[in-house]
Write a structure and sequence with these properties.
Blueprint lengths: L20 H36 L4 E5 H6 L9 E4 L5 E5 L2 E5 L4 E6 L3
Antiparallel strand pairs: 1-5, 2-3, 3-4, 4-5
The chain binds zinc ion.
C-alpha cells in the first residue's frame, strides 16, 4: 500500500493509508477544499439563477421564452427543489421562485406564496 498523499510505500500495518499525520492532514485538507469549491460553484449558479428569476418576474407571474432565459445566463440544471401539484404540473424551484416548462419553448415563472 502506498500513501494516498505522497505515494511513498507505507511501512507497518497494512490498513494504513498514509505514512504519517502530516500526509493525512494534507490529503484531508485538499479533499475539503475540493468540496468547498464545488459547493461554492453550485451556490453561485443558484444565486445567479435566483437573481435572473427575480429580475424577470416583475408581476408575480411571468411567461418568457426558455431561450431568452438561457441567453441571459439562466442554467436549467440548477434548482433547489421540485414541486408537483395535484393537477400534475411540475414546478422547479430556486428558493421561493419557481418555473414550469410550457409548450413551444416557453417558461412560466411564479413566486411561491407559501
Ligand atoms: Zn505520505
Amino acid at each position: 500500500m502506498n500513501c494516498l498523499e505522497c505515494g511513498e510505500k507505507i511501512i507497518g500495518r497494512s490498513d494504513k493509508k498514509f505514512c504519517n499525520d502530516a500526509c493525512r492532514n494534507a490529503y484531508n485538507n485538499k479533499q475539503n477544499k475540493d468540496s468547498t469549491n464545488l459547493m461554492r460553484n453550485i451556490n453561485n449558479k443558484l444565486r445567479k439563477n435566483y437573481r435572473i428569476l427575480t429580475e424577470v418576474n416583475i408581476d408575480g407571474k411571468t411567461k418568457i421564452s426558455k431561450s431568452k432565459l438561457e441567453s441571459i445566463g439562466f442554467d436549467f440544471d440548477y434548482f433547489t427543489n421540485i414541486k408537483v401539484y395535484k393537477n400534475g404540473s411540475e414546478y422547479k424551484f430556486i428558493y421561493d421562485y419557481g418555473y414550469k416548462l410550457l409548450e413551444e419553448d416557453f417558461v412560466l415563472i411564479v413566486k411561491n406564496q407559501a
